[in-house]
Write a structure and sequence with these properties.
By secondary structure, the chain is α/β, with parallel strands linked by helices. Helix content is 50%, strand content 14%. It has 2 domains: 33 residues; 189 residues, Zn-dependent exopeptidases (Aminopeptidase, 3-Layer(aba) Sandwich).
């Protein structure tokens, strides 16, 4: 009777150990494949305050649209498990009212936010402007910055695959936000406000979500 009880006890123990091992194994797999709590992404909505940026053919103010795209991207990335930090979350600039050079002070504040966040990646959101015929999303990176170039290329690949008229090449951008920080950083020009047709498209919720989703896909591919 005692021998039978010991066998049952042993069987129960082995079954418990097996279930525990499976749970631990699954947890490791989930932890390995999920970016949750692993990466911090800074999303920088370009311009703001007295610096409205470009103005579209139909009156769209770049700074306002940048913020809309930045907030949409933040929601997607937060839902996926990234730690997301925004350089600005409202229509105001980051400069001090007393600053003599408000643009310079604004950029300095953005740099401070990025450095304090311990960012793994920085994505600066902008809208382009050139001629009425210019069109398409494009990604820029800093000169001689291989990690940023790889990130830019990853996002560009998804743009070209899924967005209408996206630019086929990435470009070096001489921008403060790319040159002043030491983490992989890109500046995304989501489209041209100088093109009335594209301006209209950029203002639609569907296209906004499509652009941001493909940025997310590009980031995920880069981090693999």
């Amino acid at each position: 009777m005692i021998f039978i009880l010991n066998k049952k006890t042993m069987l129960i123990f082995l079954m418990f150990f097996l279930v525990f091992a499976i749970i631990v194994s699954c947890t490791k797999i989930i932890t390995t494949n999920s970016p949750k709590t692993k990466y911090s992404i800074v999303i920088d909505a370009g311009h703001g305050g007295m610096d409205g940026g470009s103005i579209g053919k139909n009156g769209t103010i770049e700074a306002e649209l940048n913020l809309e795209y930045a907030k949409t991207l933040k929601t997607m990335m937060s839902d996926f498990g990234f730690n997301v930090v925004m350089t600005r979350e409202n229509e105001n600039g980051l400069y001090s009212p007393l600053a003599k050079n408000k643009k310079k002070d604004d950029m300095k504040k953005r740099k401070e936010i990025i450095e304090k966040s311990n960012a793994d990646i920085v994505i600066s959101i902008h809208m382009n402007s050139y001629t009425s015929r210019s069109h398409g999303a494009q990604v820029f990176y800093g000169k001689d910055d291989k990690p940023s170039k790889a990130l830019a290329n990853s996002i560009k690949n998804y743009f070209v695959k899924n967005l209408v008229d996206a630019k086929q090449e990435i470009k070096i951008g001489d921008y403060y936000i790319l040159n002043a920080i030491n983490v992989p950083s890109v500046l995304v020009e989501c489209g041209f406000l100088s093109n009335a047709k594209e301006e209209e498209l950029l203002n639609t919720n569907d296209y906004k979500k499509e652009v941001c989703y493909n940025i997310l896909l590009g980031v995920l591919s880069y981090l693999e």
